[in-house]
Amino acid sequence: MSANAYVTLVTNHDYADAAIALVRSLVLTGTGADIVVMHTGAVGAAELEPLTALGARCVEAALLDTSPEFNARHQRDKLHADAPFTKGNKPAFHTPLDNFAKLRLWELEQYENCVFIDADAIVMRNIDRLFDYPEFSAAPNVYESLADFHRLNSGVFAAKPSRKTFAAMMQRLDRPGVFWRRTDQTFLQDFFPQWHGLPVFDNMLQYVWFNMPELWDWNSVNVVHYQYEKPWQEDHPKRAQLRPLIDLWQAYRSGENIPDIDTLANPAVSQ
């Protein structure tokens, strides 16, 4: 067992299947760290077998024991009504309350350092250097303009497991009337107000592809994060705009025709 681990969370069939692409991408980087898939009771053993076959360690992570009032405020229909998504669409299987199970990472005290990566992401090149970042480090939530640099995105972050920290989180999380607008993401920015910034290239959000193309540089992009619509959705409303990124994800999911990162950065190399 390594002292370091990449950690992801799967809470349903869609994310368990999507994690195959993430785990495969991590393995292909040649990382020496463990790869841990936290899974809730909604994911069956058969759905975890492909992840185990790729070398991931699957760890059960129960949903947090939050109050009925907290759960009601953060269930899908209520949250989407009170804090609607205006820049993109979340798929029908999006279960915002489940996002808080991500905090179970802090219970993995067998590891000194963890890097969390959302299951709807792929890693393009080795990012083991992120284990050297301090807690709590995350990339900014930039995908439309530079004005968003003040907000973090919790799709990739560096942390140090500690049950003491986890207990402190639970005390702050579920309080009377509290509402975390973007679930774990809003909570983590509140809990770690002096968060450290990771380079935006370590959590490149897919909307940058068409909103800020001048920022997209394959020579620097390390992680592609498919926020909002997912690359496996058949009714994807932005499929035409994001076709190159969708094809890239599909290659990692299937394990076939995965392009070399140098070819993406320098198309002339393949000619």
Produce the secondary structure layout.
Layout: E1 4-10, H1 13-28, E2 34-39, H2 45-53, E3 57-60, H3 68-74, H4 76-82, E4 113-117, E5 121-123, E6 137-140, E7 152-159, H5 163-173, H6 184-191, E8 196-197, E9 204-205, H7 208-211, E10 223-225, H8 243-254, H9 261-265
Parallel strand pairs: 1-2, 1-4, 2-3, 6-8, 9-10
Antiparallel strand pairs: 4-7, 5-10, 6-7
Characterise this structure.
- This protein is an alpha/beta fold.
- It has helices spanning 13-28, 45-53, 68-74, 76-82, 163-173, 184-191, 208-211, 243-254, 261-265; strands at residues 4-10, 34-39, 57-60, 113-117, 121-123, 137-140, 152-159, 196-197, 204-205, 223-225.
- It has a single domain (4-270), classed as Spore Coat Polysaccharide Biosynthesis Protein SpsA, Chain A (Alpha-Beta Complex), CATH 3.90.550.
- Helix 7 (208-211) links the parallel strand 9 and strand 10 (223-225).
- Helix 1 (13-28) packs parallel to helix 2 (45-53) and helix 1 (13-28) crosses helix 8 (243-254).
- The longest helix is centred in the first third of the chain and has 16 residues, at 13-28.
- The protein starts with a strand and ends in a 6-residue tail after the last helix.
